[in-house]
Each structure stands twice: as structure tokens, then as C-alpha cells.
Amino acid sequence: MKTKAGTIQNLTVIRKIDTGYVLGGLEQEVLLHHKEVEKPLEVDEEIQVFLYQDKKGQVVATTVIPSVRTDTYDWAEVVEVVKDLGVFVNIGIAKEILVSSDNLPMVERVWPKVGDMLYVTLDFDKKGRMLAIPLTEGVFDGEWEMAPESILNHPVKGRVYRSSKEGAVILTEEGYRGFIHHTERKKEPRLGEWLEGRVIDVKKDGTINVSLLPLKQVGMVDDAEMIVNYLQKHDGMMNFGDKSDPEDIKKTFQISKAAFKRALGKLMKEGKIEQKDGKTYIKE
């Protein structure tokens, strides 16, 4: 039988050595290190193990059976981020597994951070190295839970498994597929980030659309506070008003022009600001 990393095998102890046990039953012998077993083993004893590659690329065994394998997906925590290389995830075994930059977003600022979780399986690159591969849309297509219409306008929590300029896709706590259009967020979420939003649409195929933006009434208060803070940090004046370019507003405040104008209107009504010649000032 072929010796393949990333799989579960039932192997037999054929001899003991100083560093552990040598297992047989495959086309090549496999080392099971002492630290990978909970109790001593005997020669000819059969044992279930998981095979993986050590730092030298050799196939070795562990009695720890991870939920992430070559034939299964599960969540794995990001434990290290290495610029230009990728991120390493913990699947429950002694060795951390690389998620290559080739399988991460092109823009590194939306790469996962330490503590984020990726939904991954195991596979191999052209050099035969075992890697963790994040879930793709093609694999997940049709596998989500059907969301009921009753969750419309309800809060929802989930983790990002795909992120792009067009939008992000999350897998919710309940197993629903949720899409967050780029207009329904203030910034592009990281892959693997945990998010909280609200359901704004339930589609016929059981998927949902999610918004990360607050309701207008709540958002207006938050936006107004942000504008006041901005003014205070800029000597009480800013080169923005209700006639400012929408792109400039979005770039500076990460909100739409409509939201910006609502917040300005609230502050002017409260007598906290005034506008002159396209500029906005804090009232003393």
C-alpha cells in the first residue's frame, strides 16, 4: 500500500528503536516517535495513526488523528504569518501546516492574522509537499444549510472563507452561506476573520446577503462622532462639506456620501458644526 501523508492508516509495530517505533504495512517503513504515543507499544501491535511530513519532508506517524485530512475539511487556527510565503495553521498535530501565498488573497492586508481560522483540507504541491488548502466556492457549492426566511433582519455571525474586492463570503454559525457585498462594509474583511452582521436578504437557494453596516439611525450617530473626532484632530476644520466628492469622502471616512451628509445634517441641527466655502468647522 502506498505511503501517503495526510491519511489515516492502520499499521503494525515491527520493531522498537531509541527514538520510538518503526511501523510497517505500507510500501515503506514509517517512524512513530515516542512523543507521539501515550503509552508503550509492543512489537506486532496494530495501531491507528495519521501520516504527515516532518520538517525534512519524511513521512512520519502520529496517534493524534486530526479532523483536517486529505479527504476532509475543518477549521484550523492561524498560528504564524510569514510575508510572501503564506500562513501556518495548527491542525492538531505537532507540525504546523503551511497555507501557501498561492492560495491566499493577492493583497496581503486581507491575509489572515494570528488567531483567525481557515476552513482547510490537505493536499500537495508540485514538489510533493503537504499543504493546507482553504475552501473554495466550487467545493462548497450546494453544501450549505438552507437559511429560513425568518432570519431576515436578524443578527448573524460567521467567518470569512473567501474575500475579494467584489465582496466577502462567510460561513455562519448555523452553516449558512452569506455574501457581503463591498457596499455593505466599511473595509474589506480578512480571510478567516470572525464577523458579526445582519441578514438583509434570504435568497431562493437558501443563501443569505449580509450587511456589516449599522442601521441608518445607529450609523448616523457613529458617523457623527467620527466626524467630530476628525475635526478635533485637525484644529477644528476640515476641507469636506456636503458638496465634497463621494470618492474623497469614502477614502477618508470609509462611509458613503449619503451617510456623510446625514451625519453632517445631524451635527448642524445640534449646533455643533457649521459650513463655509465648502469647508466644515466646529462651533465654539
Automatic annotation (TrEMBL):
<protein>
    <recommendedName>
        <fullName>S1 motif domain-containing protein</fullName>
    </recommendedName>
</protein>
<dbReference type="InterPro" id="IPR048587">
    <property type="entry name" value="CvfB_S1_3rd"/>
</dbReference>
<dbReference type="InterPro" id="IPR040764">
    <property type="entry name" value="CvfB_WH"/>
</dbReference>
<dbReference type="InterPro" id="IPR048588">
    <property type="entry name" value="CvfB_S1_2nd"/>
</dbReference>
<dbReference type="GO" id="GO:0003676">
    <property type="term" value="F:nucleic acid binding"/>
</dbReference>
<dbReference type="Pfam" id="PF21191">
    <property type="entry name" value="CvfB_1st"/>
</dbReference>
<dbReference type="InterPro" id="IPR003029">
    <property type="entry name" value="S1_domain"/>
</dbReference>
<dbReference type="InterPro" id="IPR036388">
    <property type="entry name" value="WH-like_DNA-bd_sf"/>
</dbReference>
<comment type="similarity">
    <text>Belongs to the CvfB family.</text>
</comment>
<dbReference type="InterPro" id="IPR039566">
    <property type="entry name" value="CvfB_S1_st"/>
</dbReference>
<feature type="domain" description="S1 motif">
    <location>
        <begin position="153"/>
        <end position="213"/>
    </location>
</feature>
<dbReference type="InterPro" id="IPR012340">
    <property type="entry name" value="NA-bd_OB-fold"/>
</dbReference>
<dbReference type="Pfam" id="PF13509">
    <property type="entry name" value="S1_2"/>
</dbReference>
<dbReference type="InterPro" id="IPR014464">
    <property type="entry name" value="CvfB_fam"/>
</dbReference>
<dbReference type="Pfam" id="PF17783">
    <property type="entry name" value="WHD_CvfB"/>
</dbReference>
<dbReference type="Pfam" id="PF21543">
    <property type="entry name" value="CvfB_2nd"/>
</dbReference>
